[in-house]
Every structure is written in C-alpha cells, then in structure tokens.
Amino acid sequence: MDKLITLLAQGFGIGKLATAPGTVGSLLGFGLIGILIIPKSIVFYILTALLLALAAVPIATRAAALLDQKDPPSVVIDEIVALPLAYFPMAAWFIRSPPQAPLIYHFIFLSILTFVLFRIFDIWKPWIIHKSQNLPRGWGIVIDDILAAAATALIMSAIILVIYKIHFL
What angle do CA 33, 35, 39 make, to 5 degrees? Predict the structure, then answer.
C-alpha cells in the first residue's frame, strides 16, 4: 500500500524529475481536467475536483512520512489535483458553450495564461498562500496549491467575464 501511495503522490514518477517537478507534475492535471469535463456538468466538475483535492491530503501526509520530509519536492499530487480548480473558469466556459473560431484562439491563449498564473502563484506563494504551508501534515502540502488555484480562478473569471461577458453558473 505504501508503494501505491508514493506512486500516486509522486505523479507516477513525474515528481522524481530533477528539474521543475511541480511544473511538470502540474501537466498531469490536464488529464484530470479532460476526465472531469466528459460529463459536461459544471457541478460534477467542481465537486469532483474538490473531492480529489481532499483525497490528496491523506496521500500527501503518508507520502511525506514515508519520504521523511515535511513537503517533499517529489510529491506533486497537490499540483495535479489543484490544476482543475485553477481551470474552473475555462472548463465552465468549455462546458457551457465550447468556443468556436475565432474565439478558439482566445481560449487557447487564456488556457496558457491560466497555467502560467497558477504556476506563478504556486511558486511565489503570496500572503496567505505562504502561511497555509504551516498547516499540519498533508494539509500544508495541499492547501497552498488549492489557494494558488483559487487565486488563479478568480483572476481568470474576472478576465472572462469582463472581456467575453460569459457567466459560469
């Protein structure tokens, strides 16, 4: 069971990469986003993403104990499960009305911007995001990424609402 937990926590080995494991691990979140949009339900998307984020806490807790580190760099499950939350505005836009040309180019640009913003917030960890790392065990590992995703989602929601007048709920 410990091997399975480590495998999940390290993103099936992606987290063991020497360079930028968090950024590369975040890329696995795109697969999760793809799975979450299949039912074409905004409620399913957000509830499942939140449940997966909660499930990541005990996995990160156990992996940290097994690796004997407070927040092991190789543990990337937090980035994987947080990325769909960062992409909520983009996913909601796609679920409600998939963008057609020429908006598809805007959609692609905004998708890239979402990823960049998420990584900036996750690496920079401004204000409360940084403080959340002091939470005990897996909570400290996962919550900072969830807060980085929330900050990203708020900014992207504002951009999409102002520019495209698209409401998500």
Answer: 110
